[in-house]
Amino acid sequence: MNKTFFKDSQMFWCFMILGIALSMGTLPFAASIIGGALVIIRTIVYFVVKSWNPHAIPEVKMPPELVLGGPYSIVRHPLYVSSMIWFIALPLLFRSDLALLPAFGLVGITISRIYEEERYLRVSEVYRRYCARVRWRLVPFVW
Q: What is the pLDDT of residue 5?
């Protein structure tokens, strides 16, 4: 297994423990159903992204080759989409309103990371052409 798998699984178990610890939340049962559905969607998105780009890692560096197909032809940061779904899904799954606070904080940190990463990558003419071709960072027709 690679390092990314272990980082993802560590994050998963941290959220699981946090969710169980804070499971006395006041969110309705429907939040748990939505959270479960989001976990499934996130897992599908994650594996589709990894199948198109096995080199996707949570480090900012110039990629050896720019991936232009699959989910990368729709949004520029599909792995971050997967992560943000994960951040929101687990607190919902555990119906924990308290765990939503750090989850939204992680979404904000991820968005700031996208800005930082794109600033670094835009020195490449190839990446600038890719940005012109794929307009959306995370959500088509929104951002």
A: 46
